[in-house]
Each structure stands twice: as structure tokens, then as C-alpha cells.
Specification:
The chain has about 230 residues and is α+β, with helices and mostly antiparallel strands. It has a single domain, classed as Protein Transport Mog1p, Chain A, CATH 3.40.1000. The chain has six helices and twelve strands. The strands form three sheets. The chain has an eight-stranded antiparallel β-sheet with strand order 1-4-5-6-10-9-8-7. It has a two-stranded antiparallel ribbon with strand order 2-3. A hairpin with a 3-residue loop joins strand 7 and strand 8. The radius of gyration is 17 Å and the shape is globular. The N terminus and C terminus are likely disordered. This is Lipoprotein.
């Protein structure tokens, strides 16, 4: 990876991952209404100045108490007090963080991105506390529309300290690099294979909601671009 690619990758990842720094995930469980005492569930929201639509998988809702301009957290609707809501077969918590416009290079060069995420600097970026020593990258999976990372983070966890391992995806939504994470919460555990399957379904749902034919392509100049409406 060249120094310029490295810097671009780092900047894009920092924007996408650190988008929760406005009090987002670190306050999640203390602020969220997970006991269902009041209905805090929303079916759909629009983030990033209404440029990105977020809606959950079946039986999942957005917790309106946790909304930020670029961040949304999703839990089972029944957890959030929605009347007559069914519990999903598999329970999980999702966090969607929409970054700044750009970042498609991360998906066009998946080998470089995966190598970066496993590096000391990449693990520092992935850490909730910015400490690479807390993060172990167990697995990475590259798809055409996303890169998935299975990581463990031993730093303080707002979803419960027993939830060390989680999946995170990097994808493009309407031209913005977006991270989507899936984890267990509280006493609810999420198996590795179930977490990956659910996250992959959720990413496909988000991409469909934000333009199903949007793909990552390389322009004639060799530069990456996220082109909404591009049909290969």
C-alpha cells in the first residue's frame, strides 16, 4: 500500500468509525429504553442531512433516544416498547454510522483495506478507545459491495463487557462511506455465523433502500467512484 493510499484509507476510516464521537455508542445502554417501559421505536429515519435512509430488518426498529445526525442504533422492536411487536428469531444490536462523502477506494482496493485493518494503526482506528492493544482482528471478508471485519475489543463496551466480539461492515450508501456493526447486547449473545449472516442481510437492505443499482466502480482515470444509478 502506498503512503498516499494509506493516508486516504486512514482518513476515510476515521471519518466513518469516529462518527459516533458525539456521545453515540459510549452512552447507548445507559440512554436506551431497552426495558420497553416506553415506546421509543421508529421504523425509518434519514441521516446525514436526509441523504441516507435507515430502516431495520423485520422486527427491528431504530431507538429514537439514541439518534444522532449521522448515527442510528437498532434493536428488536419489542425491546423498545412497540406494542404487539414480535421478537426476532435472532436478537442483535446494530449501529449505523454514516461518514463524509467519498471513501469508495476502500472497496475498490479490498486487499489493501483488509491489510490496513489488521495493522497496528488499523486496529487503533477500530478500537473504541484508540488503543490497538485492545483489538484483535479475527477475520475479514471482502464482497463486491462491502468489507466485513470480525474483531474483538476488550475496552469498555456500552453493549455489555461480555460482548467482546462483533462484526463490522464498511459499505457505500449514496456516496458516503458507512460502517454498520452487529453485536450482542446485555445478556443476549450473538453467534459468529449468525452475526455475519444478519449483518450481510442488513447491509443489502440498506443498499437497496438507498439505491439498489449503486455500485463501486473504477473510472477511466483509474480513480474509484461511488456512482448512484450506475448499471454494469
Amino acid at each position: 500500500m502506498s503512503i498516499w493510499t494509506y493516508k486516504a484509507t486512514l482518513c476515510a476510516l476515521v471519518f466513518a468509525i469516529a462518527g459516533c464521537s458525539d456521545g453515540g455508542p459510549q452512552a447507548f445502554l445507559s440512554m436506551s429504553n431497552l426495558n420497553g417501559s416506553a415506546n421509543t421505536a421508529l421504523r425509518e429515519v434519514r441521516l446525514a442531512d436526509r441523504n441516507v435512509t435507515i430502516s431495520g430488518l423485520s422486527d427491528y426498529c431504530i431507538d429514537k433516544t439514541l439518534l444522532r445526525p449521522n448515527v442510528a442504533a437498532l434493536f428488536p422492536c419489542a425491546n423498545l416498547g412497540m406494542r404487539r411487536a414480535e421478537w426476532p428469531q435472532t436478537r442483535a444490536a446494530f449501529v449505523v454510522t454514516v461518514g463524509q462523502p467519498g471513501g469508495a477506494d476502500l472497496l475498490v482496493n479490498p486487499d489493501d483495506t483488509q491489510a490496513f485493518l489488521k495493522s497496528n494503526r488499523g486496529r487503533q482506528v477500530l478500537s473504541r478507545t484508540g488503543n490497538a492493544a485492545t483489538v484483535t482482528v479475527a477475520r475479514t471478508v471482502a464482497r463486491r459491495d462491502a468489507i466485513y471485519v470480525l474483531a474483538s475489543d476488550t475496552s469498555p463496551n456500552p453493549f455489555g463487557q461480555n460482548q467482546l466480539r462483533h462484526w463490522r461492515a464498511f459499505t457505500m450508501l449514496n456516496g458516503r462511506l458507512t460502517t454498520v456493526s452487529a453485536t450482542g447486547y446485555g445478556e443476549v449473545s450473538l453467534a459468529e455465523d449468525q452475526g455475519f449472516a444478519m449483518l450481510e442481510r442488513f447491509v443489502k437492505r440498506l443498499r437497496s433502500d438507498n439505491g439498489a443499482v449503486s455500485e463501486i466502480v473504477v473510472t477511466r482515470s483509474g480513480k474509484a467512484a461511488a456512482l448512484a444509478g450506475y448499471a454494469p
